[in-house]
Amino acid sequence: MSGQPVLLYDGDCGFCMACIRFAERRIGLRARPVPWQSADLAAFGTTRERAEREVLWAQDGRLYGGAQAVARVLMAAGRPWSLAGHALRVPPLRWIAHWGYRIVSVNRHRLPGGTPACALPAERR
Fold it and tell me: How many structural domains does the chain have?
């Protein structure tokens, strides 16, 4: 897929949807947000398992997941957000961002906007 970036997120997760709304209102999301549940994941070169695990940024045939997808969201937004996005790509901040993203993704059902459904596998929601 090429052209406008696409941000694949979990459309069944209240926390994920709250993050998308925040990015649209406060950061200036410059990607088309698409719930992975309604996307042709194979066309993006990914799987359901990966989409369930992390947000994905798809652009020009490249796919970035997790903290690196968040970095792409920030980089595309322009200054001052792009500075933070670029910083998240450089070790050791890249490693810290990856670690932090994993903690948030595993606990998203406990965070504001999250629901108990966020903790369930997609096939049980």
Answer: 1
